[in-house]
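cache lookup: miss for this entity combination. No prior model stored, computing from scratch. Input as submitted by user K.M.:
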Amino acid sequence: MAVTPRDNAAFEAGIKMGALYHQFVGSPVSPGTVESLENAIARSISVQPFVKHITVSIDRKMVEESLNAFGYTELKGTMLRVDAVIKYENYEAEVGIALKDGYPLMYIKNVKLLEA
Amino acid sequence: MAVTPRDNAAFEAGIKMGALYHQFVGSPVSPGTVESLENAIARSISVQPFVKHITVSIDRKMVEESLNAFGYTELKGTMLRVDAVIKYENYEAEVGIALKDGYPLMYIKNVKLLEA
Amino acid sequence: MAVTPRDNAAFEAGIKMGALYHQFVGSPVSPGTVESLENAIARSISVQPFVKHITVSIDRKMVEESLNAFGYTELKGTMLRVDAVIKYENYEAEVGIALKDGYPLMYIKNVKLLEA
Amino acid sequence: MAVTPRDNAAFEAGIKMGALYHQFVGSPVSPGTVESLENAIARSISVQPFVKHITVSIDRKMVEESLNAFGYTELKGTMLRVDAVIKYENYEAEVGIALKDGYPLMYIKNVKLLEA
């Protein structure tokens, strides 16, 4: 079957989720730097092709509960809540990362055909 | 529009390409360790869900030409040649990473519906 | 020989330079997001133990010159200029990352014994 | 105070520990691929300057206990046991990463002056 714009919307959306996760998970973070890291991650991924919108939030309660004796922790996949819209030609894939049964699940919420 | 298995095949394929790239690009590598790194990358990504097949090759000529004064370099995206098949329900997405006009392009080659 | 506080100051300083480099090199970046990334890197590393001071700057000219057809690039080690002071007990190691002969060199500039 | 070869031995040793950790933590891993990942990490870091010796082991019991519903996990800092010898001029720093009180501690075990 020929590859369609819809396939590419979903594929590009997956790329961004995998990139975000494996680039930034492991970053040192503390309650005082959570917001700066959220913003930088969202802005960094937003420069990639086809990203129409992205929000990144890091669970502050989990950060607090994970602090080590030195007062910081590392960004874990389970702390991430991501919502993004990836637009490829006339298709938009709404995707995200969220905690599901203890696992940081990457998922497609919706695929939309934009009106001409 | 409802999210289809075909959408998920493409999405999952994208995740793997983005993860591979952003996890391993930057790894120190030399001509003597290229093969070990290729194998470890392929095996690492192969444990993720829905990966039916993956091969990773690193361009040895580019490694040689990038060596610094200490005799090593870092894995760059442009050195990667990846071919993978991601299977989600009855769909297979054949995807890869290859150098295109100097840019490490991630692409879908084909999406297949498997016969029941 | 017994391990000294001075050894630990130098060791801890090295850890921060290696961590910074391998955590963040590869991050997507564009002229519009350079500053956000610089800040987030500096703040992220600053939460690690023994970091007294850190500044991170990314070479804007190199970012501009590296832009791909999609208008962004990835953070490369050669774009980084880092200055940091790591304090371990009564020793301070002043260290950094700077471009030297085309190679992103990590170096110790000075080790200081603080007066009691 | 002038920077000494001993300072540089400790600094270079720190760089390698920080690099190893932040490059490879997050890599997907399963019981069947642990050994391949250990070898690739050790070989990758061994090409960096001044690395005389390095061994990397990943705690198999922790991998087993961390497996998610898909049968894999991600390399965590707490799973790492590293021993390395970094040689700078006539100094050798023996360093490592080990679990201490639930925290993946990077430490210097010894600094040795080699006989001329």
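stored under new cache key. The interface with chain C takes residues 21-22, 25-26, 68-69, 74, 77, 101-103 of chain B (CB under 8 Å).
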